[in-house]
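Incident log, support desk, overnight shift.

02:14 A customer reports that sequence design results differ from what the structure should imply. Their input is reproduced verbatim below. On-call engineer (initials T.W.) acknowledged and began investigating.
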């Protein structure tokens, strides 16, 4: 359960078939500019949040999974196709946009910026990393 007075960390897919809850706030959030994230989201970059290990609970339905490359799985709703997870190195990162209240998350950084599309101008002042931050997160394509 979230702290009294704090946000509730729940989310799910567009159609509501898959739902989840985290009993702790995210440890960090990041924008990813890799080619895999562009392909899976259809957007120029994607945002993910990492909840503490063991904090995540699937409360309704089950996510489908796709092994996008060595050691990486992408979770999504098998009904509506909504992107839900990036899973690598034993960790599950939730798609920020799948949260019921993504506005409660403060994104801290941009990762894989060496793959950033040329027309994207980052003016938010967040740190930019050409690869992964802290060694997490699989092996992206450009």
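02:41 Re-run completed on a clean worker. Output:
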């Amino acid at each position: 359960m979230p702290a009294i007075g704090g946000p509730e960390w729940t989310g799910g897919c567009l159609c509501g078939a898959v739902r989840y809850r985290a009993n702790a706030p995210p440890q960090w959030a990041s924008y990813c500019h890799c080619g895999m994230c562009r392909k899976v989201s259809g957007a120029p970059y994607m945002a993910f949040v990492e909840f503490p290990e063991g904090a995540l609970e699937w409360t309704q339905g089950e996510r489908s999974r796709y092994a996008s490359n060595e050691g990486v799985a992408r979770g999504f709703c098998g009904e509506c196709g909504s992107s839900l997870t990036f899973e690598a190195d034993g960790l599950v990162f939730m798609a920020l946009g799948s949260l019921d209240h993504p506005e409660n998350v403060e994104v801290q950084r941009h990762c894989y910026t060496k793959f950033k599309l040329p027309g994207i101008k980052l003016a938010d002042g967040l740190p930019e990393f050409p690869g992964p931050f802290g060694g997490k997160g699989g092996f992206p394509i450009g």
